[in-house]
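CORE FACILITY INTAKE
Project code: CF-77B
Contact: R.S. (postdoc)
Sample description: multi-component assembly, four entities in total
Requested service: structural model of the whole complex
Turnaround: standard
Below are the sequence entries exactly as provided by the requester. Do not edit them.
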Amino acid sequence: MISIYDKKVKYTRILKRNKLKLTPKRIAIIDYFVKSGKYATPFDVWIYLKKNFKKIGLPTVYRNLEKFEKIGILTKVEGEENRFYYGICKIKKKKHHHHITCSFCHKLLDFDICNFEDLKEEIEKKTGFSIKEHYLIVKGICKDCQKGGEI
Amino acid sequence: MISIYDKKVKYTRILKRNKLKLTPKRIAIIDYFVKSGKYATPFDVWIYLKKNFKKIGLPTVYRNLEKFEKIGILTKVEGEENRFYYGICKIKKKKHHHHITCSFCHKLLDFDICNFEDLKEEIEKKTGFSIKEHYLIVKGICKDCQKGGEI
DNA sequence: TCATAAATAGAAATCATTTTCATTTAAAAT
DNA sequence: ATTTTAAATGAAAATGATTTCTATTTATGA
């Protein structure tokens, strides 16, 4: 098990390798995701950063999340209501996976269960399409929300 | 096989039954979907209506598409780039189905092939979620675009 | 320490969608 | 057929997520 400190070091190294400058805000953003372990919207991250920085713009958050996705430390997932979520993907490197979201608290989890390949050919035959990609979006109630009312 | 004329009559009847007034614009909107048989964005529909009506606002299209979905003559599907598509669903009444979209021309088709039930329990066990719904989103190249270059 | 390219703030732009409100209209009541 | 009235509409403005622009600031390599 890697410590949170080691994780931060690790992510910092990735920033350097990708020639991204190491700014306090970037460290705070990574920190946020490492600590929470959850998926969050740019707005969520912004709210968190405002506690620690007098000046912090929402565009900065958007820009950095986008860059972090590009270099592979965050994963971008389409969530509820046309909003995008970012998070550190738990599934190992690029392994095919899908997402499940909680309808109450909007929590987002990864899982690597999928049986799409069994269907692919049948769908191609029926629709005439040549299939390139697929996403399975699953919604339900997460463990926490099943117990405790709303959140 | 029902004629397009009969279809229009049928949809008109549904409007009446749902206490929606029969306006020329509503008829034109239904007409559009019956004729084209495709999924389209509110904007697409608006462009079409502008040819026949001097005054036609985009909000009117949005409002009507929303109502038509509510009473069941149209299906709303999330498509590419945060846009929603509406169309007359080919799959019979409320039968479980999914959607496939063309990455080139954004065409959208329904298909009723799905093997999610085989996975459900496994995902619930792994994530702790109680699953309520799922969507399979498939992307590829449609028959037309496979042949003829771009569109 | 300095030079410079990258990062940032703040404001404004975008773009799909929704709301508001005054006007028009379909259809129910007369 | 005419009146009544609730629903439908147009036009403008609001919304909300996201992006772009530009001037200023800052991390970092020389």
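Facility notes:
- Residues 19-21, 23, 25-26, 55-57, 59-60, 63-64, 82 of chain B lie near DNA strand D (CB under 10 Å from a C1').
- Residues 4-17 of chain B form the longest helix (14 residues).
Invoice: internal transfer
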